[in-house]
Amino acid sequence: MTNPAIIDCDPGHDDALALLLAVADPRLDLLGVTTVAGNQTLDKTTANAQKILALAGASDIPVAAGCERPLVGDLTVADDIHGESGLDGPDLDGPVAGTVGVHAVELMRRLVAGSPEPVTLIATGPLTNVALFLRLHTEAARNVRRVVFMGGSTERGNTTPYGEFNIVTDPEAADIVLRSGLPLTMIGLNVTHRALATTRVINEFRGLDTRVGTVCAELMTFFADAYRRNFGFEHPPVHDPVAVACVLDPSVVRTVAAPVVVELGGTYTRGATVADLHHRSGRPDNCEVAVALDVDAFWRLLIGAVHDLGIPRPLVTSEDR
User: Where does the Inosine/uridine-preferring nucleoside hydrolase domain start and stop, copy by copy (predicted)?
Assistant: First the structure.
């Protein structure tokens, strides 16, 4: 059985690592990549996705741009963390393949409806595209195996005291996804803050002595400076690859079932994810919530994937998909 997947993302330094992991690991059949505004504006996140796929030798994977703003309110980008381009640090200039000529939500529909096996949606940005897909294409959504999203937290936030960036950017979209009835897995800050790109990890990327490894080291070096400046972290957490790792190897991330809702109206808590881990609310479980990470296994998986991208990738034709 193959494991077909779509990544919906807003690259972003950690989204870039998530894309590289998804491309490199043969256990995942990456059908397409859709982009959303979040870490930067839509034009920049889309260009960044194209650059990373080109770096990975995977320009044949279709890319479609999606929503340029949240369902409600205005977009606030994270240029203090990811820089003006969204991927500041390495030089990623070079030719890239174009996007397909449809909206991200339409590409999701085509890929999900056309897949002979249920498709996993891996979301590493705000959930705007995913929410619209679920609302507009209910028939196609029946062929979604599950939605794994990096977002939220069972503890603190990183944008507001209790709100994580992806959820705070579009709480209404997150609410739609959490009430969809689909199998869901939430990869929150409580777990991703354990996936720290230490100096040793950055040196391991650089020590691969490949173009991809060097780019990863440069991405993480910029990211480290941004996290040190903004949060006082000694080492930066790489959030988004944990969501991909969870799909590739469930033993890397431990989850528990719980009711999860998004706060939409709180003056101080809008965008907070309320995970009822002790089942005090009486609500039914609607989500698998990540609570633990095998840190060593995670880094072995990610660094091994980047190592493998130094080996020429077989050409994938449309007949192979």
Answer: 6-300
Whether the full predicted model's pTM is greater than 0.70, yes or no, is: yes
Q: Any idea which fold 4-320 has?
A: Inosine-uridine Nucleoside N-ribohydrolase; Chain A (3.90.245)
pLDDT at residue 311, rounded to an integer = 58
CA distance linking residue 315 with residue 48, whole number of Å:
22
Spatial CA neighbour of 9 closest among 190, 186, 243, 196: 243
Provide CB contacts within 8 A for 162, sequence distance 6+: 153, 156, 263, 268, 269, 271, 272
Q: Which residues are catalytic?
A: 239
Look at residues 41, 25, 51 and name the one whose alpha carbon lies nearest to residue 33.
51
Q: What is the pLDDT of residues 180-234, one digit of tens each?
A: 999 999 999 999 999 999 999 999 999 999 999 999 999 999 999 999 999 999 9
- For the chain, domain boundaries: 4-320
The residue assigned the tokens 């479609």 is 64
Q: Which of 159, 306, 122 is nearest to 219 (CA)?
A: 306
At 189, the amino acid letter reads: L
Query: Which residues, 6 or more positions from 219, have their beta carbon under 8 angstroms from its beta carbon?
Result: 13, 16, 17, 87, 89, 90
